[in-house]
Write a structure and sequence with these properties.
The structure holds 2 protein chains of 2 kinds.
Chain A: H1 5-14, E1 23-27, E2 30-34, H2 38-45, E3 59-62, H3 72-88, E4 91-93, H4 100-106, E5 115-118, E6 132-135, H5 138-147, E7 149-153, E8 157-163, H6 172-183, E9 192-196, H7 198-202, H8 205-214, E10 222-224, H9 229-237, E11 257-262, E12 269-271, E13 279-281, E14 292-296, H10 297-300, H11 303-313, E15 323-327, H12 331-340, H13 342-349, E16 352-353, E17 374-377, E18 393-396, H14 399-408
Parallel strand pairs in A: 2-3, 2-5, 3-4, 5-6, 8-9, 8-11, 9-10, 14-15, 14-17, 15-16, 17-18
Antiparallel strand pairs in A: 1-7, 12-13
Chain B: E1 2-6, H1 13-16, H2 19-22, H3 28-31, E2 52-55, H4 67-74, E3 79-82, H5 87-96, E4 99-102, E5 113-116, E6 122-124, E7 129-131, H6 138-146, H7 149-156
Parallel strand pairs in B: 1-2, 2-3, 3-4
Antiparallel strand pairs in B: 1-5, 5-6, 6-7
Helix pairs in contact in B: 6-7
Classes of the chains: A alpha/beta, B alpha/beta.
């Protein structure tokens, strides 16, 4: 029997043959932590005798959750991160550079075939570049930093085939919400997901990031895209160099199950409060009034997302009574949006543009919704209290649906704004 | 020997220790008195060293923060016994050296006296029954035996003494 991508990548890093179900120690290529997780990692590191950072150039620290700092307590912990990074020579992205899950791939820290861990559940995002990336705990990250390896339970693989062509006005986010809605919040628990199919072949890397990012919402350990011309082209465009070996599953790989989706007739999708898998077509949400619209996050804060939103927002002004908040995913995203004019359109439409980072997604700062306010967000989670107020209702959508809804003041089908 | 404290399915990490308690302190020993308080008020102080937490499927779902297994350990819980675990809770528990057994927990009732032997077999002393647990793979057994991932790695990769 052949091997899945997960079995191949973990096998290469463990240095021996392995199968789904095995427990192994494997070498880790890149380690990541952010200001949300690092304080606990530092605490775990103090339990290790003669702690060292084995590969500081491959240990990346990002200040993104709380930027600029909203309080002296946060400033204190961010100082701690800066001090640690400087003491051990780790790579540091300071406040304002952007979200870890954008910066890590964008700056060429991860390449096809790698094994990557991050103390943040959305580390799965990097699988879009044909690699195994997964979220781990704080002791895990401290162990990986000190010894360069970690234990893994080799996951079983679910293959998801996405066939057809996305209709106009629909995007990878709609596909991601549709999959999470149909498989449920534990539908891929502890599994690796491998993507394939004609719609994946046509999907650019930005869309693949969005799709991989959301697979953790159904419990996936990792989500991996094929390596193809899209991957190669994206790496070239960002001038990312390095030796890498793409990974392909064997034709007779032992996958646990295969699921197919045909998306040619899909409607824009909305996740209703307060669960990510509570997904319905936009026609069921039409007319729900919104008081806040949030464009950004590691799911949809990329240059393409801002462009798509600007393409709709240029047709009007943000509806009275709606606060449109934008948090670009990185400084480079801001630069691209300035260069192509979408930044100006966002501002002129009435948007408040935050500095690059996680923004209001985790409810710490940058736009906390009021009581009974309906929020439409391009994020990946809509749990009760997620944005800092248990009395608010969070709906999730694509950037296009968000932009159309911001103009109308209520949840709106973006296809009304086509052409 | 210890007492079984029985809970249902999908016990999330916020139930294990409520977020509002973590604002004041993250010291597991101080937080242990609030174990499961949202779903069973007054539970923490009733737990005695050596007791067991017994639950259904998907125990420890929700946030991946290590504070949840740390509080369970600080409360003196000898082992968690559940039908299944959320991935992150399972990883964190193994890393910290908390015994997390997988078994059919339906035959165990709240208040039963339990014991678990070296082989991982659960003895229900109240009912006179034995319950098999899913055997640990050798790597996990070694990590637990060492007392968690840090002592395991320290032993495995011990620097050569001059």
């Amino acid at each position: 029997m052949g091997k899945t991508i997960a079995e191949k990548i973990l096998g290469r890093h463990a240095g021996h043959e392995l199968r789904a179900g095995d427990f192994v120690l494997a070498k880790v290529d890149v380690m990541m932590g952010n200001d949300g997780s690092l304080p606990l990692v530092f605490e775990a590191s103090r339990k290790i005798r003669e702690f060292v950072v084995r590969s500081p150039e491959r240990t990346i620290m990002v200040l993104d959750h709380y930027c600029p700092s909203p309080s002296k307590e946060v400033s204190r912990l961010q100082e701690e991160v800066r001090g640690f990074a400087s003491k051990y020579g780790c790579v540091l992205y300071d406040c304002g550079e952007g979200i870890c899950h954008r910066l890590i791939p964008e700056n060429g820290h991860v390449l096809p075939g790698m094994l990557v861990v991050g103390a943040d559940s959305h580390t799965v995002t990097y699988g879009a570049l044909n690699l195994f990336a997964t979220g781990v705990g704080s002791t895990d990250l401290a162990v990986a930093m000190n010894w360069g390896m970690l234990w893994f339970h080799v996951p079983k693989t679910i293959r998801i085939h996405i066939e057809g062509t996305l209709p106009p006005g629909l995007y990878a986010k709609d596909v991601a919400l549709h999959i999470v809605g149909s498989m449920g919040s534990s539908g891929a628990a502890s599994r690796a997901i491998e993507f394939g199919g004609s719609a994946i072949d046509e999907m650019d890397i930005e869309g693949r990031f969005t799709l991989c990012n959301m697979m953790v919402e159904m419990g996936a350990e990792t989500a991996i895209m094929p390596f193809d011309e899209m991957t190669h082209g994206w790496l070239e465009r960002l001038k990312i160099k390095g030796d890498y070996e793409p990974v392909k599953a064997d034709d007779d790989a032992g996958t646990e199950r295969e699921i197919s989706y045909e998306i040619s007739r899909l409607e824009p999708q909305i996740a209703f409060p307060h669960e990510v898998d509570n997904v319905r077509p936009v026609s069921d949400a039409r007319g729900i009034p919104i008081g806040m619209a949030f464009l950004g996050t590691c799911t949809n804060g990329g240059p393409e997302d801002l462009r798509i939103a600007a393409g709709i927002l240029k047709k009007g002004r943000v509806h009275r009574g709606v606060q449109l908040i934008v948090s670009p995913a990185s400084r480079r995203v801001v630069e691209e949006a300035l260069a192509d004019g979408s930044y100006q359109i966002l501002v002129e439409s009435g948007a408040m543009v935050n500095c690059p980072g996680c923004g209001p997604c985790v409810g710490a700062h940058g736009g906390v919704p009021g009581d009974n306010v309906n929020v439409l967000s391009t994020a990946n989670r809509n749990f009760l209290g997620r944005m800092g107020n248990r009395e608010a209702n969070i709906y999730l959508s694509s950037p296009a649906t968000l932009a159309a809804s911001a103009l109308m003041g209520e949840i709106t089908d973006p296809r009304e704004f086509l052409a | 020997m210890g007492v079984a404290h029985k809970f249902g399915d999908n016990i999330n990490t916020d139930y294990i220790i409520a977020s509002k308690r973590k604002r004041d302190t993250v010291d597991p020993h101080k937080l242990a008195q609030y174990l499961m308080e949202d779903i069973r008020p007054g539970f923490g102080p009733q737990v005695k060293g050596g007791d067991f937490l017994v639950a259904g499927s998907n125990f420890g779902c929700g946030s991946a923060m290590e504070i949840a297994p740390l509080v369970v350990m600080a409360a003196g819980i000898r082992a968690v016994i559940a039908k299944s675990y959320a991935r992150s809770f399972y990883r964190n528990a193994i890393n910290l050296g908390l015994l997390v057994l997988e078994a059919d927990t339906d035959p165990i009732d709240d208040g039963d006296d339990l014991d678990v032997d070296q082989s991982g077999l659960i003895h229900n002393l109240t009912k006179g029954e034995e319950i098999q647990t899913r055997p640990f793979p050798s790597l996990i057994r070694e990590i637990l035996h060492a007392g968690g991932i840090i002592p395991y790695m320290e032993r495995k990769f011990a620097k050569a003494t001059p």
